[in-house]
C-alpha cells in the first residue's frame, strides 16, 4: 500500500503510465479508432499530400494514405518490436548475469568479457550491421536489437548479484544445503527484481527509438507496413512544404520514448529502497 501511494504521488510515473497506456489502447483498438483503416495497405493517389483538415486529421502522405490511421496501426508494430526484442534481451541477459555474478571462476569472467565485446561497439551500429546483413524485415529488426541489447541486462544483473553474494541470507541458504540454482532463482532474483523491471521499462523506450532508427534507414519492416521510422524517411523530400508528414510520426516516437523513460524513472524511485531524494517527486 505504501508503494502504491508513492506511485500515485509521482507525477512523472503517472505521466509515463498514461502515455504507455494510450499507446497500448491505440494498438489494440486501431481498427475502430482509425478513420481510413484501408489506407494501411491501399492508397488513394488523388489525395496525395493533403494537409491536416476535417477529413484527414493529420494529413496524408505521398501515396495519399491517411497518416493518422497509419500511425494507429504503426503502434502495433512499435509494441511488437519493443516487447519481443526486450523480452529476448532479458531472457538472454539475466541468466548470463546471474551465472557470472554468482560464480567466481574463469567461466564467469569469460561471460563478462563477451558482454564487454558487445558493449564496446555502439549498439545502434551493431544493430545496423546485423539488420543490413539479414535484410529489411520486422523479425530481423527484433533479432538485431535482441542480440545487441542483452549485455545491458547482463551487466546490471552481474553487478547486483555480486553485491548480494556475501549477504547473510544468501550464505544462510547455502549453509542449509540449497543448490546454486535454488539460491539464484528463489533468493537472488526476487531481491533484484525491481532493478530488472526498471531496466526493462527504460529499455523498451530505447528499443523503440532504435527500431525507428533502423526503419528510417530502410532496414525495418518493408512497405506498405506503417513503420514510424520509415514514414519519417519518406517525408524528407517533401519538407518543409508537407511539414505534417514528418511531424506526426516524429512526435509519436518522441512521446512514446519519453513515456517509457518517465515510467521507468518513476518505478526506480518507488521500487528501489536505496534511492531517497528527501521526498517523493510530485508529492
Shape: elongated
CATH homology group: MetI-like
The helix-strand sequence is HHHHHHHHHHH
Distance between the termini: 16 Å
What is the arithmetic mean of pLDDT?
A: 87
Task: Outline the structure in words.
The model is unreliable at 276-283 (pLDDT under 50). Helix 2 packs across helix 4 (67-102) and helix 7 (138-164) packs antiparallel against helix 9 (180-216). The chain has 11 helices and no strands. Helix content is 71%, strand content 0%. The protein has a single domain (2-29, 76-271), classed as Orthogonal Bundle (MetI-like fold), CATH 1.10.3720. The chain has helices spanning 2-9, 11-28, 30-33, 67-102, 106-120, 123-134, 138-164, 168-175, 180-216, 228-235, 243-271.
Describe how the helices and strands are arranged.
Layout: H1 2-9, H2 11-28, H3 30-33, H4 67-102, H5 106-120, H6 123-134, H7 138-164, H8 168-175, H9 180-216, H10 228-235, H11 243-271
Helix pairs in contact: 2-4, 2-11, 4-5, 4-7, 4-9, 5-7, 6-7, 7-9, 8-9, 9-10, 9-11, 10-11
Keywords, separated by commas or semicolons:
283 residues, peptide transport, disordered C terminus, MetI-like_sf, membrane, 0% strand, mainly alpha, MetI-like fold
Amino acid at each position: 500500500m505504501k508503494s502504491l501511494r508513492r506511485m500515485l504521488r509521482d507525477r512523472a510515473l503517472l505521466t509515463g503510465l498514461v502515455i504507455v497506456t494510450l499507446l497500448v489502447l491505440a494498438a489494440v483498438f486501431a481498427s475502430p479508432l482509425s478513420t481510413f483503416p484501408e489506407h494501411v495497405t491501399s492508397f488513394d493517389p488523388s489525395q496525395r499530400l493533403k494537409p491536416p483538415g476535417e477529413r484527414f486529421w493529420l494529413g496524408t502522405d505521398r501515396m495519399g494514405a491517411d497518416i493518422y490511421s497509419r500511425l494507429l496501426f504503426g503502434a502495433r508494430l512499435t509494441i511488437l518490436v519493443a516487447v519481443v526484442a526486450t523480452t529476448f534481451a532479458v531472457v538472454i541477459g539475466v541468466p548470463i548475469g546471474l551465472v557470472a555474478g554468482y560464480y567466481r571462476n574463469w567461466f564467469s569472467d569469460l561471460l563478462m568479457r563477451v558482454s564487454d565485446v558487445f558493449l564496446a561497439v555502439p549498439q545502434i551500429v551493431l544493430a545496423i550491421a546485423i539488420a543490413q546483413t539479414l535484410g529489411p524485415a520486422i523479425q530481423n529488426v527484433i533479432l538485431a536489437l535482441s542480440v545487441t541489447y542483452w549485455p545491458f541486462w547482463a551487466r546490471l544483473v552481474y553487478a547486483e548479484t555480486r553485491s548480494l553474494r556475501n549477504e547473510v541470507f544468501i550464505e544462510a541458504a547455502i549453509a542449509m544445503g540449497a543448490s546454486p540454482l535454488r539460491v539464484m532463482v528463489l533468493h537472488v532474483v526476487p531481491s533484484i527484481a525491481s532493478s530488472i523491471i526498471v531496466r526493462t521499462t527504460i529499455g523498451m523506450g530505447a528499443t523503440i527509438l532504435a527500431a525507428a532508427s533502423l526503419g528510417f534507414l530502410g532496414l525495418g519492416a518493408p512497405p506498405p507496413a506503417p513503420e514510424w521510422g520509415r514514414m519519417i524517411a519518406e517525408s524528407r523530400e517533401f519538407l518543409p512544404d508537407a511539414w505534417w508528414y514528418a511531424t506526426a510520426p516524429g512526435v509519436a516516437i518522441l512521446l512514446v520514448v519519453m513515456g517509457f523513460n518517465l515510467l521507468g524513472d518513476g518505478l526506480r524511485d518507488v521500487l528501489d529502497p536505496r534511492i531517497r531524494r528527501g521526498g517523493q517527486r510530485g508529492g
